[in-house]
C-alpha cells in the first residue's frame, strides 16, 4: 500500500469514526435535551443568551442520513482538503533542486523522518512515518485554523434582549471536540497493536508485558517472575488508559485556549466604544500564545505516540560480554 493510500485510508477511518462518535453523542444527548425542554424553553433561552464560552460539545450543522455533521467536522474536512491540495500542488512537478512549496514539504518530512528515526530506528521510522507525520501536520494546521477570524463567530442565531446570540456556529476548532481527539487516539492504539505484533510477535508481546526483566538466579529469579507478572497487569491498565490521556490532553488544551480567547474578548463590556476597542486588542497576545500551544500540542501528541510505539517495538541490541 502506497504512502498516499495509507494517508487517505487513515483519514477516511478517522472521519468515519468521528461521525459515529458524534452520532452516538447526539443520540445520548437527545433524552437530556427533552428533559431540559420540559422545564421551560423560555428559561433555557434566557440562560443561553447570558452564557459565554465555548460549549463542551460540537453543534450539528446538518445531517447526512443518521449521522450529524458538526461544526468541528466541517473544520477538519476543510483542513484535510487544504493540506492534500497544497501537498499535491507542491509535489506536482518535483525538481532536483527543490524550491518554494516543494522545499517546505521535503524539509518537513525529512526533519520528521530524522526525528522519528532517532526514537524508533531507521527501519521502523520509514514504515510508520506515514501515520506520525500525517497526525502531526493535521493536528498542527487544525489547531491553527481554529484561530482564524470567523471560527466560532459565523453562523445562525437569534436576537435577544442582550443582542444577537449565536446558536449554531458553522465552524469550531477541530481538536476542541473530544470526539475528534478520541478518534485519533483510538486509531493510534489499533495501529500500535498491529505494529507491536509485527515487530515482537504474540509471544514477544506478552513477554514484554509480563516477562521478568534482568538477569537473576536462584530464589531471586522466581520472585522476580512473580513480581513482573503482577506488574504486567498494571502495565495493561496503563495501556488501556493511553487513548484517554492522549485524547483529553489535546482536547483540554485546545478547548481551554479557545475559551481563554473568548474570555479576553469579553473582559470589557462598557462603555460600548471601550468594548469595541478592547475586544479586538486584549486577545492579541493570547493569539500568539495559542499559536505556540497549537505547535506544542501537535508535537506532544506525535511524540507520545512515537514513544509508546518505541517502548513496545524497539529493543536494545545485546552486546556480548567482554572477558578479561
Topology:
Elements: H1 3-38, H2 41-50, E1 60-64, E2 67-70, H3 71-90, H4 100-120, H5 122-145, E3 155-160, E4 163-169, H6 178-210, H7 218-265, H8 272-281, H9 284-313
Antiparallel strand pairs: 1-2, 3-4
Helix pairs in contact: 1-3, 1-6, 3-4, 3-5, 4-5, 5-9, 6-7, 6-9, 7-9
Provide an overview of this structure.
The chain has one domain (3-313). It is 72% helix and 7% strand. The protein contains nine helices and four strands, in the order ααββαααββαααα. A two-stranded antiparallel ribbon has the order 1-2. Residues 30-51 and 317-324 have low confidence and may be disordered.
Count of helical regions: 9
Biggest sheet layout = 2 strands, antiparallel
| Helical percentage | over 70%
Counted beta strands: 4
- What is the spatial order of strands in the main beta sheet? 1-2
* Structural domain count: 1
- What radius of gyration results from the CA coordinates? 24 Å
Helical/strand content category: mainly alpha
pLDDT < 50 runs, ≥5 residues: 30-51, 317-324
How far from one another are the termini? Answer: 51 Å
Instruction: Provide the residue-averaged pLDDT.
Output: 81
- Element pattern in H and E: HHEEHHHEEHHHH
* Strand content bin: 5-15%
| Shape annotation | globular
Q: Top keywords for this entry?
A:
324 residues, 4 strands, single chain, mainly alpha, globular
Provide a short characterization of the protein structure:
By secondary structure, the protein is mainly alpha-helical. The protein has helices at residues 3-38, 41-50, 71-90, 100-120, 122-145, 178-210, 218-265, 272-281, 284-313; strands at 60-64, 67-70, 155-160, 163-169.
